[in-house]
Amino acid sequence: MIEVEHLSKTYGSTTAIQDITFGAQPGEILGFLGPNGAGKTTTMRILAGYLPASEGTARVAGYDVHTDSMAVRQRIGYLPESPPLYPDMTVQGFLNFVAKIKGVPADLRQKRADIAMDHCGLTDKRKVLIRKLSKGYRQRVGIAQAIIHDPPVIILDEPTVGLDPRQINEVRQLIKGLAGSHTIILSTHILPEVSMTCDRVTIINRGQVVATDTPDNLTTRLSGEAAYELEIKGDVDRAQRLLSELSPVRQVTLLGLEHLPDYHHRLRVSAEADRALGAVMSAALINAGLELHELRRQQATLEDVFLNLTTTEPATGATAPPEALAELPTVEPTPEEFET
Amino acid sequence: MTLLFKNILAIYQRELQSYFASPLPYIIAAVFWLLGGFFLVAILLGPQGILAQAAMADQAVQMGMPPSPPFDVAYEFNKAYVGLLGSLSMFVLPMLSMGLYADERKQGTLELLATSPVTNWAVALGKLLAVVSFYLAMVLPLMVCQSIALGAAEPPTGSGVFLLSHLGLVLLAASVLALGMFISSLTESTVLAAIMTFALILLLWLVDAVAQGLPGVVGSAIAHLSLLKHFTDFTEGIFDTGGLVLFLSFIGLGLYLTAQSIETLRFQRS
Questions:
Q1: I need a surface site. Which of A279, B48, B143, B261 has the fewest CB within 10 A?
Q2: Smallest Cα–Cα separation from A29: which of A208, A158, A175?
Q3: How far is A88 from chain B (nearest CA, A)?
Q4: Where are the alpha helices (DSSP H) in chain B?
């Protein structure tokens, strides 16, 4: 459905993306992952036909985005980096306008607008001026305009930016719900996001594809090491001893005591990746009569990953071999959190 | 074809709607009407006005002076007033055209338009039609006031010159708006677009002044290309196809440049 081959884009002397190749099957959700400035937005814009590529081809639904621009435009819904909204229009008025220019027949427009607003949780804001909406709602209107004409291909550039956690969850559910009948490509710099929503992930850094795989495979590759942070009350030396005796644990360090109530201590545990470790640690501490106030698996964002990647291997420059990812700390989608 | 028409209509409607949503167009229209109304009274009834001049000419004849050339009050009034509306419009038009594309660029909505199945031509044409419609809505009330004054003329005047002069006014405005729209498509700043459009209008005046000042072939060649010269012809009731073609060419040029500018924007955007 989406085929990108050897795509490059240069602005003057700067190279935004270089020789990118990837694809998406019909009905698939493809995550496009990379740190800020990796070339995600550029690639999205080329796919949407907004920017011409310097080299290479991009095809959407079998049509070349540059030479068959109109055919592609009819088949895509596109949410740019900043949602394209007219502040002086109401949500309904704006969606109606978008439906018109996207070529939705007049008798279907109202229905499609209702469906899009329903999907994006905008029904009770339909008469509100976009100018008066919060950032999260504007983002939702942006998503609504991308799906209003029920396009076979949906291109979403950072769809969850600016949303609160509950809205992020809703948007992810919405995207998942659209899969199957739609091919979706979404860009993000948050790894859990792709793990939760995408069927396949393409990671780019500095304009080049670093890896393409399923989220599960990537997670296993990335989760060589896990880090936890604990807050306990009681004999901290005993706690450290107990934790060190657990087999996957490599190191236990005592963190500073600032802002903690009396007899509370913070510990950082680094260990081999082991999904059951959280349960084992909490059981060990509680059986020993210590109070466990917090246990949290540290989440690394992709930016941390790339920061690591680029600082540890400056010599290799832009090309980071996929194997390097294996040395990085754990990145886990689901945080385990116990609070008493 | 019907699809193209629908797209133009959609752009047109959205654009018109935006005039009602923002306070700026109301303010522009209010100031235009206030000044237009003031000058209507001043030109007709003021101490130096057309009626005062006619009365003086009459008096001169009664006092036995040699009669001055015949003086058609209704014609002179129409010519002076529409000419004035043209000058007044020159200050208003940059404010109408400045936001046409600059706002779209600033809000990022150009990205929506450029990735929708709408051609740049359709967008530009829809926008131009909308802004010209708004200008018409600004001129119409003043036309009504003027036609009331003309209706009192004795002997009654035909409506030909009156309508022709206003056709010239709207054509002039549409030409300037089309060029202003192109300028607006070059920048993200509405203020810059307004200033540059005004500079263009000054240039048009300059061309007109040069055309009048230069003798011979060069002067008349420039005069043929002067928008304001042809506008003056229209206000004097002279209709020539050359003028009409020139206005339409400028409108077409503005549309063409706008569509091209949006197209190239996509090639050089960083």
A1: B48
A2: A175
A3: 6
A4: 2-21, 23-45, 50-62, 73-97, 99-107, 109-114, 120-151, 160-184, 190-213, 216-225, 227-235, 241-268
Ranges of residues in chain A whose predicted pLDDT is under 70: 218-225, 256-260, 273-275, 299-340
From the list B82, B124, B81, the residue with the least C-alpha distance to B260 is B124
Q: What is the pLDDT of residue B1?
A: 66
Q: Nearest CA to CA, how far is A179 from chain B (Å)? A: 22
Query: pLDDT per residue over A276-332, tens digit each?
Result: 788 888 888 888 888 888 888 775 555 555 555 444 443 333 444 444 444 444 444
Q: Delineate the domains of chain A, giving CATH numbers in brackets.
A: 2-221 (3.40.50.300), 225-298 (3.30.70.260)
The answer to whether the Cβ–Cβ distance between B117 and A101 falls below 8 Å is yes
- In angstroms, how far is the first alpha carbon of chain A from the final one? 49
Interface of B with A (CB under 8 A): 3, 6-7, 10-11, 13-14, 17-18, 21-22, 107-119, 266-267, 269-270
Q: Which of B10, B21, B266 has the CB atom closest to A100's CB atom?
A: B10
Q: What pLDDT sits at residue B126?
A: 96
Residues of chain A neighbouring B112 (CB-CB closer than 8 A)? 78, 80, 84, 98, 145
Burial A196-212 (b: 16+ CB within 10 A, else e): bbbbbbbbbbbbbbbbb
Cβ-count burial of A333 within 10 angstroms (0-12 exposed, 13-18 middle, 19+ buried)? Answer: middle
The Cα of A51 is separated from the nearest Cα of chain B by a number of Å equal to: 5
User: A145 — contact with chain B (CB < 8 Å)?
Assistant: yes
**First CA to last CA distance, chain B:** 34
- E strand residue ranges, A42-197: 55-60, 63-64, 76-79, 153-157, 183-188
Best A44, A51, A101, A127 member to test B by mutation, with max B CBs in 10 Å, is A101
Residue with tokens 């945080």: A335
Q: How far is Cα A164 from Cα A119, in angstroms, rounded to an integer?
A: 17
State the smallest CA–CA distance between residue A132 and chain B in angstroms: 13
Which residues of A fall within a CB distance of 8 Å from B109?
84-86
Q: Which of A295, A289, A301, A288 is CA-nearest to residue A328?
A: A301
Q: Which chain A residue has its CA at the smallest distance from B123's CA?
A: A101
